[in-house]
From TrEMBL:
<dbReference type="InterPro" id="IPR050272">
    <property type="entry name" value="Isochorismatase-like_hydrls"/>
</dbReference>
<keyword id="KW-0378">Hydrolase</keyword>
<dbReference type="InterPro" id="IPR000868">
    <property type="entry name" value="Isochorismatase-like_dom"/>
</dbReference>
<dbReference type="GO" id="GO:0016787">
    <property type="term" value="F:hydrolase activity"/>
</dbReference>
<protein>
    <recommendedName>
        <fullName>Isochorismatase-like domain-containing protein</fullName>
    </recommendedName>
</protein>
<feature type="domain" description="Isochorismatase-like">
    <location>
        <begin position="3"/>
        <end position="68"/>
    </location>
</feature>
<feature type="domain" description="Isochorismatase-like">
    <location>
        <begin position="143"/>
        <end position="309"/>
    </location>
</feature>
<dbReference type="InterPro" id="IPR036380">
    <property type="entry name" value="Isochorismatase-like_sf"/>
</dbReference>
<dbReference type="Pfam" id="PF00857">
    <property type="entry name" value="Isochorismatase"/>
</dbReference>
<comment type="similarity">
    <text>Belongs to the isochorismatase family.</text>
</comment>
Amino acid sequence: MPVQAGDVVVTKQGLNAFPGSDLEQQLLKRGIVTVAIGGFLRDCCVEATARAAYDKGFNVVTLLDCMGPDANDLNDQPINAGPTAANARSTFTLFSNPMPFNSFLSRVEEGTGKKLWTRDVGIDATRCLSPGRHGEVPTAAKTALVMIEFQNNFCNERGALNHVLKDEILRTKVVENAARACEAARAKGIKVFHISINFSADMSDNPQRGLGQLGNAARSVVFVRGSFGAEFYQEMAPLDGDVVISGKRCLDSFPGSEFEEELLARGIEHIAFGGFLANCCVEASARTAYEKGFKVFTLTDCVCTLTQDMLMRCLGVQGNPGTYSLFSQPMFSSDFLASVK
């Protein structure tokens, strides 16, 4: 893959190609609207970059035949329900339009003066992110338990999206587990954060009304501010002393919200995530927290998504790690809470 004359070379610092690099600047100054992404590794740097591009408002295409394997595939230990190409594709539809390269090329409109730009994004191991907040032992004062989108649309039987999740909610016992984790965290002095997603009734503040999971939300007109579906589910309602983050409009909880400000104001160094959907907003938020230098934990009994196979791609199966292990320490909520001093 030699760089050709006219190509743009970007050197990145982390899994996601945007933080600390000039990728976004290079895209914007050329008026780029659509970004097609391939490379290594599919579930690591490619997925992290595609998720970030989506939340930044780009039209994202993921090139299915131009990606290296998942990190887990490098172990040469095939598994049935782990990070396979099929499950990767189902996850990629949440934030991109997955297709082979030739299909993408056939859809590119050839107009006068238009050019298909190529960007070679490499990583320089001598450069790194912030030193991180990775103390060996989490302390309660510097730890946050973050619960994402325990809202009526997902959890309540009257919710607009409950019908596609109710079997998995029952199977995983995610609500009961998360409520128990919140109670135990409060008792231990750990700050509990609740993050909701919500939009205006006309969806004008939805950054991706035509693509992926946010596009589905716009078409269905769900999570409208002030509506029943956007309210927190009663069993997971915030209590006095909890922190409520209501500015989330993207899959990732950080962009455009007050989330990072609230974390930094409290000196938080360690973050444990739970919520919905495991492979969508939870994963997007945990990936970004990792890139920002937080020590990240993903609570395997406090997350849920549409199918068991999708969940196993995150968590891993039969001793093989899932995507969560690329940017966090996956563990049961009880084990995590026991580790906090």
